[in-house]
Amino acid sequence: MVTGGYALALRLHTSGPLAMVVAGLLIGNRGRALAMSENTRENLDTFWMVVDEALNAMLFVLIGLEVLALELRWEYLVAGAVAVPVVLGARLASVSLPIGFLRLRIRRSVKPYTIRLLTWGGLRGGIAIALALSIPAGPERDLILAATYVVVVFSILVQGLTVEPLARRRVVRLSEADRWEVGANVGEARREDGPDGREEGGADRGE
């Protein structure tokens, strides 16, 4: 399916890597829910977890080797530095708009740090590099490839190393705020009750 689907996507002048991502999502979600038992799903998850770790290791080795073949110019690095905030801004828009729509549609509260964490946690890696490498040879290919590498390196080294401390700090702050709010509500409820734990007014004491 991978080879045929990739070739079909190229034939239709669409993205082969993205077509395979969509196919994997459909099979991985719908297929496992309809055609697999719990034991099969557990064994399959374990197998693909090992494969994923091995392929990720190979991927980053290849990414490092590809850097040696890149033609790094100052203008390419500047373009990559400009692309970093542009990519983060696009990620912010793609996250905040659906969440804002969900807030209005289903009227459910979303934690205040959700948008920031989803924006900063949107790491780039193999798919971005694969899309850049799939561009046909031309004068713009080296520029796009170098800028993509700058974005990926920033994503892995800066975002990847800081997203966990950021998430912990946000969760701890929110937990402290929740505890303070719960304590305030309990104290207010106790003040509304009498000294013996019943509501003031003496209705249950026959007064």
Biggest pleated-sheet summary: none
**Overall pLDDT confidence:** 76
Radius of gyration: 26 Å
What is the ordering of alpha helices and beta strands? Answer: HHHHHHH
From the helix content, strand content and strand pairing, which structural class follows?
Answer: mainly alpha
Descriptors for this entry?
mainly alpha, 7 helices, 207 residues, disordered C terminus
How would you describe the overall organization of this protein?
- The chain is an all-alpha fold and 207 residues long.
- The chain is 79% helix and 0% strand.
- It has seven helices and no strands.
- Helix 1 crosses helix 2 (16-35), helix 4 runs parallel beside helix 7 and helix 6 (126-133) runs antiparallel to helix 7.
- The radius of gyration is 26 Å and the shape is globular.
- Mean pLDDT is 76; it is low at 177-194 and 196-207.
